[in-house]
Amino acid sequence: MWSYKTPGIPDELFITSESVSGPTKEEIRALTISKARLREGAYVIDVGCGVGSLTVEAALQVGSEGRVFAIDENEEAVKLTRTNLAKFGVQNIVQVIRGKAPEAMLELPVVDAVIIGGTKSLKDVIKVSHEKIKENGRIVVNSIMLETGYEALKEITRLNFREIDVTTVFVAKGKWIDAGVMMMARNPITIISATKV
Is residue 75 part of a domain? Predict the structure, then answer.
């Protein structure tokens, strides 16, 4: 299915649904995983896992000695995540949790990284993430809305994370048409990452 260690699984390989957003686009996934600085044996929380694309990518990075905790409150998202985990053979590395963050995070162990996609309680999720991340661990927040990015940056700064990096990514993908290749723009995404000290 996907025999590579490098992130960036093609979007079309994931099983999706009209009722669940995702997958996170492959270029954004590659950058997100890079910003999380994952390694073999790491523990990761994926908040708002959607169809599980970032969960799968994280599981491939941490390997059988690591653990990924995928959280989503949407029952269909949880089902799709489980389906995609089985498709990519990483279901034994991941614990899928149907629940609302940050409450669903409270009983989880301390982790090396937290990746935040979708959540309605961003400020509280970042606060709990700060408690759950090990020293020198990483937080990564993907934001499609300016307001979300601003709120994340403000809270990350308030909690004294260091090495704060803000990157806005503009991606255009080629679409084949009769006359040649037309570049189709995707929504810009802001990726905010930082280290807990």
Answer: yes
Question: Hey, how many other C-beta atoms are within 10 angstroms of the C-beta on 128?
Answer: 20
Residues of the chain with pLDDT under 70: none
Cis peptide before 23 (omega within 30 of 0): yes
Whether 40 and 58 have beta carbons less than 8 Å apart is answered as no
Digit-coded pLDDT (tens) for 52-108: 999 999 999 999 999 999 999 999 999 999 999 999 999 999 999 999 999 999 999
Can you say whether residue 86 is alpha, beta or left, with left for phi > 0 and alpha for psi between -120 and 50 degrees? alpha
Structure tokens at 31: 């950058």
Q: For residue 129, what is the domain's CATH number?
A: 3.40.50.150
Strand partners, 195: 138, 162
Q: How many domains does the chain have?
A: 1
The secondary structure of 25-90 as a DSSP string is PHHHHHHHHHHHT--TT-EEEEES-TTSHHHHHHHHHH-TTSEEEEEES-HHHHHHHHHHHHHTT-
3-state secondary structure of 102: coil
